[in-house]
Design goal:
binds zinc ion, two-stranded antiparallel ribbon, alpha/beta, 10 strands
């Protein structure tokens, strides 16, 4: 009986483990499909970069030049965009701007942490120019040396989905203006931190699956790409318009030339 009981207990445990395994797999797989459903598909119509920029509701509130995170002037030509999340349940984008502007966040190579943008559900705040390097990813590694750092807020009351969507739009706009390819959209995870026992940080944690990029991360990058495609389509639309205008101009010139020639013939007659 005792053996039967313990056998039953271990079978039950195995069943529970299998079920919980199933649950976690299906819930992670489901997360981004629920998000996609809630947000709706990204429109396929062209969008002008100005329109998208206005939609971001971007506020520029730079760290004073020569101070704290901008203590050293370190020029950067951005080649990547790095996505983070704050893991701060109390600070909104304004609180992070304040903290950066008074040098309250210490760390990194220059002694102060800094990044380029903080995003919350209804706004984006810029802290340093995109032509200057930040301290947000991997000390003296390529994440800091070549990437624009974006932090997504996680404070209570903030709509996480709208924050992700605003971040996707910001990343698309930055891709467009700095000619950054989609494969260079990186999670903080992608930049290992030298000397750490877990070099690849679980960041942005809610977009990673078990601490690693998976379906949800791919969904986010796909969303960035679709917003970018709208800007690219707008460029194509402008080019097509220009081509049509040039053709119309050529036709007008041709008609003018023919009429002029006819006039000369009539005059000669
Ligand atoms: Zn991070």
């Amino acid at each position: 009986m005792k053996i039967a009981n313990s056998l039953f207990a271990s079978l039950a445990t195995a069943l529970l483990l299998a079920l919980s395994g199933c649950n976690s797999t299906s819930s992670t797989a489901k997360k981004s499909s629920i998000w996609e459903k809630e947000l709706g598909a990204v429109a396929q119509t062209p969008e002008s970069p100005t329109e998208l920029h206005e939609d971001l509701n971007l506020k520029v509130n730079l760290i004073p030049k020569g101070k704290y995170g901008r203590r050293l002037f370190r020029e950067m030509t951005p080649q990547y965009i790095t996505i983070h999340s704050t893991q701060n349940p109390t600070g909104d984008a304004y609180a992070h701007a304040k903290a950066l502007n008074r040098g309250a966040l210490r760390g990194g190579v220059c002694g102060y942490l800094c990044w380029h943008f903080t995003v919350q559900d209804d706004t984006v705040i810029q802290h340093i120019p995109t032509s200057e390097r930040g301290e947000h990813a991997d000390f003296d590694g390529p994440g800091n040396r070549y990437s624009i750092g974006i932090e997504m807020c996680e404070h209570q009351g903030n709509n996480q989905l709208q924050t992700m969507e605003r971040t996707a739009k910001l990343a698309a706009s930055l891709m467009y203006h700095h000619k950054i390819p989609i494969e260079n959209i990186r999670a903080h995870y992608h930049w290992p931190r030298e000397g750490y026992s877990t070099p690849n940080k679980n960041c942005p944690h809610f977009l990673l699956d078990n601490g690693q990029p998976g379906d949800d991360w791919r969904w986010f990058v796909g969303r960035v790409n679709r917003h970018y495609q709208r800007l690219a389509a707008y460029d194509e639309y402008l080019q097509e318009q220009k081509r049509q205008e040039e053709e119309a101009k050529k036709r007008r010139q041709m008609v003018h030339m023919i009429l002029h020639q006819i006039g000369e013939w009539v005059g000669l007659g």
